[in-house]
Amino acid sequence: MDKALKFFDIYPKVVPADKTVTIHIRPLYEHVKFVEGEEYEVLYYPMERVSVHGEYQYQMPQLVKVEKGVLKINQYFAGEQEHMFVINDLNEEIEPIRIRVYSVEDDLFNKRPYLGDLNTQSYYSDGEESPAFIAASARNKGLDFISVTDHHQYKPSLEAIERFKDVEIDLLILPGEKVHLPDNPVHILNFGGESSINKFVEEHQEDYFLQVKAIAKDIVGIKDPQTRFLTASSIWAFDRIRNANGLGVFCHPYWEVWTGYYVSRTVIDYFYKHKLFDAIELLSGYYAHEEYANTLQVARYYEALKESDDIPVVGVSDAHSCSDDDLLGNYFTVVFADDLTKEDIIKNIKGLYSVAVSSIPGEHQRAFGPFRLVRYTQFLLREIFPLHNKLCELEGAQMYAHLGDDKRAKRQLSIMQGQTESLYNKLFAKPTNIK
Fold first, then answer.
1. Sign of CA dihedral 92, 6, 368, 298
2. pLDDT at residue number 93
3. What is the DSSP string of 286-299?
4. In this structure, what are the phi and psi dihedrals at residue 381, rounded to the nearest 5 degrees?
5. What does the alpha-carbon distance between residue 193 and residue 21 come to, in Å, rounded to a whole number?
6. What is the tens place of the pLDDT at every residue in 375-406?
7. Where exactly are the structural domains of the chain?
8. Backbone φ and ψ of 367, nearest 5°
9. Which fold has domain 3-107?
10. Which of 291, 273, 272, 275 lies closest to 283 in space, CA to CA?
11. Which fold has domain 112-412?
12. Which among 170, 174, 172, 169 has a CA at the least distance from the CA of 149?
C-alpha cells in the first residue's frame, strides 16, 4: 500500500470535474503528524497537464496552515483526469507527501465502482468447495458481487444465496449457471437470470430443437450447417437469458482444447458482427501457461472496436477453487453502477460502464475496456481499492466463521454491514465540500 494511504486519512479522493473541492489530509499516527499552526508548501499538478491556467501552465505553490491537525486544500479540478499534490514541510522534518485525486464527469461521479466475478464453479460440478464457501471467499478477496455458475446447474447458486439469507452482509450474491446446450460446444453464462436455461432444455428438448431450427433458417453468411446450427442455438440461449432478466456472456472465445480453439473463427466473427451476446469475457481465469488466450481475447476486442464501440466487457476468474494459489480474485469485473443491485449491475455492464481487470499476484494490475474507464480504474486500483479490500477481508473472515457455526459471527457481520458504503461516502466528495 502507498505510504500516503497507509499513514494519512485523505478525503475526498474522487471529485467532480470542473469544480472547486476541499481536500482534507489528516495524519493517522504521531510520527507523521503536522505541526499545529505551521504552514506547509503545497504543489499542485494536473496529471494530464490541463488546468484552469491552460495546458502546461502549472499554478504557483501555495502555503496552507494546519488547523486542528488537518491540512485543508481548496483546489479547482479541471476536466476528467488524475491530479497530484506534493506537500512539503518547510522545516524538512517530514518527507514530501504525494497525494492523488481523480476528477470525473457527472455521469461517473454519480456511480460507484463495484468489483465482482460472474463465473465460478463449486463442488456440484467441477469445482472443489461449496457455493457458500465461494461467496465468503469472494468477499474475503475484495469482491462486492458474485455468482456461482456451475456447469449445467442453477441450484448451487441459489444455495449460496440461501446460506446467507439470515445474516447481514454487503456481498451481493446472484443466481447463475454455465449453459451447455445439446450439440453446441459454446459456453454461455446465464448471470442473474431468474430461471435455469439448462433445466428448460432438459425438460423441453424437442421444443428447443424446433426453435433453434427456425432461428437457423434466418441466418445468412454461414454456409456450414453445423456452424449455422450452433450459432442459432447460441442466439436462442442469449434471448432466453434476456427473457429471464439475466445477462448472457460469451465465455473465453480463445480457450484452447486439444487441437484448437473450442469454437471457430466463423462463430466468433459472427457473434461480434451481430452483437449476439450481452457481454464478452475479455479476461478469463487462465493460468500463466494459458495467458496467451487472454491476449488474443483483448486484441480481438480492440479490433472489433473499429467497427462498433458498443461491446460490453467483463473479466472473470472461472475459478474452480478458492485457495490462495487459485484464480479467484486474480481476474474480475469493475462495474460503475448507481447501486449494488442486480438490475443496476446488468444495466451498467450493458451500458458500457464496466472493465475487465487482471490482478495476478506479483504482477502489475491491469484494466481493459473503454479507455476512459481504464484510466479511471487504474487510479482506483492504486488509491481506492486497497482501502476497500481491507474492509472486505474482515467481513469475509466473519462469513467464513458463520459457515463454521461461530455464533458470534452473525453479530459481527451486522456491525460490519455498511463499511464499504461508508468508505465510499467519505472518499467521494460531498456537496458540502464542493463549490
1. positive
2. 75
3. --GGGTHHHHHHHH
4. -60, -35
5. 42
6. 999 999 999 999 999 999 999 999 999 999 99
7. 3-107, 112-412
8. -110, 145
9. Immunoglobulin-like (2.60.40)
10. 291
11. TIM Barrel (3.20.20)
12. 174
